From TrEMBL:
Family listed: Belongs to the prefoldin subunit alpha family.
GO cellular component terms, semicolon-separated: cytoplasm; prefoldin complex
InterPro entries: PFD_alpha_archaea (IPR011599), Prefoldin (IPR009053), Prefoldin_subunit_alpha (IPR004127)
The protein, known as: Prefoldin subunit 5 isoform X2
Gene transcribed to yield this protein: PFDN5
């Protein structure tokens, strides 16, 4: 999820609130050395790489994440189907209990 914010238009209180709501905040910038970049490899570690090596790293990372998503997708679909079946069953039970309660109330009044 990317979110763009013009921080020059925000007051100090708004910036404080923004800081508390966002885990990371990105601001525009320019690279002085476009041949070497720092990339975030996770858990707070950064590695300096050439631009081509960084592109290769991100291509491999995208491929890895895509494969992982493809692996877990069937399990997620199965869990979603199970959830839907449980929700349907619960809805039927609630309707039965409501109908039973209505009929018992009518019998008690008679």
């Amino acid at each position: 999820m990317a979110q763009s914010v013009n921080i020059t238009e925000l007051s100090l209180s708004q910036l404080e609130m923004l800081k508390n709501q966002l885990d990371q905040m990105y601001v525009p910038g320019k690279l002085h050395d476009v041949e070497h970049v720092l990339i975030d490899v996770g858990t707070g570690y950064y590695v300096e790489k050439s631009a081509d090596d960084a592109k290769d790293f991100f291509k491999r990372k995208i491929d890895f994440l895509t494969k992982q998503m493809e692996k877990i997708q069937p399990a997620l679909q199965e869990k979603h189907a199970m959830k839907q079946a449980i929700m349907e069953m619960m809805s039927q039970k609630i309707q039965q209990l409501t109908a039973m309660g209505t009929s018992q109330a009518a019998t008690a009044k008679a």
